[in-house]
């Protein structure tokens, strides 16, 4: 739930971000907010998504060989 503030005290919160492009750099800016609504200075996190693994068999397409008897 984007934008929701947790209702409990925690030293860490994690989330999953889906649909990111492979081999792409993303920058996130994060703030902490205390129970009075005061916001901290931002922290920046930069990540790079990995390149996808290529399955050589699928990349070449399926090949079938028919043997005659």
Automatic annotation (TrEMBL):
Please tell me the species this chain comes from: Ilyodon furcidens (goldbreast splitfin)
Pfam families per record = ASTN1_2_fn3
**Do you know which PROSITE patterns this protein is assigned to?**
FN3 (PS50853)
Which top-rank group of organisms is this from? Eukaryota
The Fibronectin type-III domain extends over 1-53
InterPro entries reported in the protein's UniProt record: ASTN1_2_Fn3, Astrotactin, FN3_dom, FN3_sf, Ig-like_fold
Name of the protein described by the UniProt record: Astrotactin-1
Q: Which gene encodes it?
A: ASTN1_2
């Amino acid at each position: 739930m984007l934008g929701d503030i947790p209702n409990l005290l925690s030293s860490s919160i994690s989330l999953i971000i889906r649909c990111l492009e492979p081999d792409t750099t993303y920058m996130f800016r994060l703030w902490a907010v205390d129970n009075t609504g005061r916001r901290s200075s931002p922290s920046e996190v930069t990540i790079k998504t990995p390149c996808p693994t290529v399955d050589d068999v699928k990349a070449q397409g399926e090949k079938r060989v028919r043997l005659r008897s």
